[in-house]
Amino acid sequence: MKRYFKKVSRPKETSSSTKNNVDSESSKKDELEAILDNLPSDPARRKRILDYDPNIRDEVQRHYFLKGPCQPRNHEFPQTLISGTKRRFVPSWFDEHPEWLEYSIENDAVFCLCCYLFKPHHGDQGGGDKFTCKGFFNWKNKKGLQDHVEGLGSVHNQALLNCQALMNQKQHLESVISRQLESSKHNYYTLLNASIDCVRFLLRQGLAFRGHDESESSNNRGNFLELLEFLTEHNDSVKAVAFENAPRNLQLTSPVIQKDIINAGAVETLNVIMFDMGDAPFSILVDEARDHSIKEQMAVVLRYVDDKGQVIERFVGIQHVKSTDARSLKLAIDELFSRNGLSISNLRGQGYDGASNMQVTRVVNIVGASCKCRDLLREQQQNEVMEALHNDELLSGKGLNQETTLKRPSDTRWGSHYGTLLSIISMFSSTIKMIEMIIEDGTYPDQRGEGNLLLAQVKSFDFIFCLFLMRQVLGVTNDLSQALQKNDHDIVNAMDLVKACKQQLQTMREDECEWETFLDKVYSFCGKHGIKIPNMDDVFVAQGKSQRRAEKITNLHHYRVEVFYTVIDRQLSDLNDRFNEVNSELLVCVASLSPDNLFSAFDKQKLLRLAKFYPRDFSERDVLSLEDKLDIYLNEMRSNSEFSQLKGIGSLAKKLVETGKHKTHVSVYKLLTLALVLPVATASVERVFSTMNIVKNPLRNRMGDQWMNDSLLVYIEKDIFNSIGNDAIMQRFQNMRSRRGQLPSR
């Protein structure tokens, strides 16, 4: 036969084609994860299950059934006129049909989750399309829900059995084919438990997982693999089931497995937070910032009072937003509420940050651009200090005149700008000499040109005037900023600080002595550093602008009216916008709850006014009842020695719970919780962004949004994450998708 037929050799699969196949598989997994992450919760927004690709349909069905039916129990269900009577959906129906009944807020109708996932097309049997596409909304006919279930062999019950079979992995073909012995299940449990331990350690420390080269010949395979290998070297039971001792297709070391374990831990952490909050009223704190991959990220923190009377602030997620306008942020918040089953009817306050950066960053960037520049700056400052000590211009002593450098302003800390201004003023001479050295030693013309431009700006009267003005304005508000960034800030004390800041700023603006004192400081500083001081009676000449049509004003008018007054007015305007009349009245009413000095601030009328701010929590009848109860409450509080030494409304709420008085004075305790959830500042959200720079650093700037969200959640809420056992994470991990390995029955 060989004489008549020529043997044709099969083409060998090239390494490039193998790589393409791997990339294709990775791309498919990423696409599936993106689809599962963006599945809509509201039944009316879903597309038909048959419209999904058959290859991913099982995963979509599993994801929906694992998530459970959409049951917004705290939603205010609207009333509909049916046969002359207003009727609405009753939340208790969820308890009667917990496995399948779900409600659409968008359509005001109920649907069946099981029938959506598995109902065949059999005409009107099982309710036709009512419970899958159109929705059932005949609130008069509750019997329609039971009619949908029908008998044991009904379409609905068959769909329910299909859902249960889907979640029972022993029924899957993969599991039937790869049915394991009990020993292999225990091996799988041991290996998965070790992988979760490694993930826990890396998440708690905010460390990277992957390595540049993860091959077996690599000297550094990445933190996860290196940590797992370290664990195998010190634990024989793990060594017996890991790496070469594990099946090649069940080593639990792939990036997908790592991400699934992280997501499982994050979901369990979030579930604990939601369970702890329950149906309590809450407020949201929202802020946005850019990460290292130049993506705009929106972080959300929930503030509520737990069952111990303690104020709790919990981070619940970060979400990438393409725009930071109000509509985009609202849509992102709505999606977060829907995904976590939060009801807007329990929302009692919202806090947003609108701070912007100052332009002193340019000086810090140029002077502190390199280690050499920083060393020279320290050396120059040290020489300045030694000379000042020699001339008796500085005091010497323990802790004085420490080595320092220019402080860099932070995007997420209000007070950091004030610190930057102070460091520039105290190191002004050293900074000027450093810029001159950069101009002299500059390698490139652009570098020398930028240095010359910066030197001219810094040595101008305009710069010094604005430097001292911003130092004085931020100095007034710095105490308020620091107080609002504390974890235990008190709303009553915050209002006192706001009032003091407004009064001080108003005094700066109106008092002639304040202006003269400020101007003397600027003149003295300019004279000390050889900066030309303009004649205040001369005509002001703006640099770079045409003088033909410009209004003729003096330098005094420009610096006092157009700069000094404008900056102060803007600061006052910002404070008034953030603490307007309504907010101020609300906060003043809250001050009446303070237990300080035996409830000396107690004001019955203000507390009644406070209750009227919350019509959803206090009806007119409740307000009348509260009026009668307040006197009894005050007498009992003043006569009880346990409440005589309390400071702040936070300590009052905790003491009421400790003594059980919150059950006696229910209305007053409700007022307290509503006051405590009010967001005074967004410092908690700003701390999230500080943490984001640790988790998503420049070396990890390609981290995906979901991975970053999960990593941040468990890193920030590590006290909750630490309380969750590995078994709970394992079960969540197993239910996420079909697994080759099976856990032993326990």
Please, could you describe this protein's structure?
By secondary structure, this protein is of the alpha+beta class. It has 33 helices and eight strands. The chain is 56% helix and 7% strand. The strands form three sheets. Strands 7-6-5-8 form a four-stranded mixed beta sheet, with helices on both faces. It has a two-stranded antiparallel sheet with strand order 1-2. It has a two-stranded antiparallel ribbon with strand order 3-4. Strand 3 and strand 4 form a beta hairpin. Helix 25 packs antiparallel against helix 26. The protein is globular, with a radius of gyration of 33 Å. The N terminus is likely disordered.
Q: Summarize model confidence as the mean pLDDT.
A: 81
Strand content is 5-15%
* Tertiary shape: globular
- What does the main sheet amount to? 4 strands, mixed
Say how many strands there are: 8
